[in-house]
């Protein structure tokens, strides 16, 4: 399944797939910088992470892999 980054902008909802947590966190930060709101990351197991958890998510997956 991979990591899914979702959010909303003026055009509507968006959903982007990334292969790693690190790539998902990077994309999530890019989207927020562009004004996308309600940005979340969903892991391969279906757990959702909000912006407050992004850095911990990247750090924990980097430590594992």
What is the helix/strand order? EEHEEH
Bulk shape: globular
Record field, number of beta strands:
4
Q: Which sheet architecture does the biggest sheet show?
A: 4 strands, antiparallel
Helical residues, percent? 25-40%
Low-confidence stretches: none
- Count of individual domains: 1
Strand order of the largest sheet: 2-1-3-4
Radius of gyration: 11 Å
Number of H/I helices? 2
Helix-strand makeup class: alpha+beta
Termini separation comes to 18 Å
Indicate the proportion of strand residues.
Answer: 25-35%
Mean pLDDT: 92
Describe this structure in words.
With 65 residues, the chain is of the alpha+beta class. It has one domain (3-64). The protein is 37% helix and 34% strand. It contains two helices and four strands. The protein has helices spanning 21-33, 54-64; strands at 3-9, 12-18, 37-42, 48-49. A four-stranded antiparallel β-sheet has the order 2-1-3-4, covered by helices on one side. Strand 3 and strand 4 form a beta hairpin. The radius of gyration is 11 Å and the shape is globular. The chain starts with a strand and ends with a helix. The model has no long low-confidence stretch (mean pLDDT 92).
């Amino acid at each position: 399944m991979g990591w899914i980054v979702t959010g909303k902008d003026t055009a509507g909802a968006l959903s982007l797939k990334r292969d790693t947590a690190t790539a998902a966190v990077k994309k999530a930060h890019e989207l927020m910088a562009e004004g996308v709101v309600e940005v979340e990351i969903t892991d391969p197991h279906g757990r959702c992470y909000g912006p407050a958890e992004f850095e911990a998510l990247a750090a924990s997956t980097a430590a594992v892999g």
